[in-house]
Amino acid sequence: MKEITRINHVGIRVASLEASRKFYEKLGFEFIAGPLGPEPVAIMEHPTGININFILNTNSDKTENVLMDIPVKHSGYTHMALEVTCLDKVKTQLEQHGIEITGGPIVLPDGATFIFVRDPDRNVIEFHKPGK
Fold it and tell me: What is the CATH number of the domain that holds 112?
C-alpha cells in the first residue's frame, strides 16, 4: 500500500508505568498523557516523533519475555530498532544511565552496527547505526 507513510506508534505491554517512564526518559522520550482509556494506555514521545504507547494491564508475575526468553518460540514482535547517528555516543549514554547492553555489537557486511538493551519488562530495544 503506497498510502502507508511511517509507523505511527509502538504498543508495549508493561507492568509499571513508573518504571517504564523512568527508563524511556533516559532514552530521551517525554511523557505525553495517561493512563487513558479502558486498557489503560500511557503515551510517551521522542523529539524525533517516535511514539510509544504503554499498555498498562500486564501480568506482573512474569519475569521473562515470552517471545525472547523461553525455549518455545511464539509468533509476535520481538524488538523495536531505533536508528542512531553515532553508536559510540549511544553506548556512552547507556552506560551513564546504568543501562546494560545485553547484545552486540553486531556488524553486518555493509558496516551496519547494532546493540541491544532490555527495558524493565525485558522488551528488547535495538540501537541501529546504518552502514554505507
Answer: 3.10.180.10
Q: Which residues contact 130 (CB under 8 A, 6 or more apart)?
A: 83, 112
Sole residue written with cell 530498532:
81
Total structural domains in the chain? 2
pTM: 0.88
The CA angle 19-21-22, to the nearest 5 degrees, is 65
Give pLDDT, residue 73: 67
Could you give the CA distance from residue 46 to residue 28 in angstroms, rounded to a whole number? 6
Position 67 in a domain: no
pLDDT computed for residue 75 by the predictor = 66
Across 10-17, average pLDDT: 91
Rounded to an integer, the average pLDDT of 71-75 is 70
| Cβ neighbours of residue 84 closer than 8 Å, sequence gap 6 or more | 90, 127, 128, 129
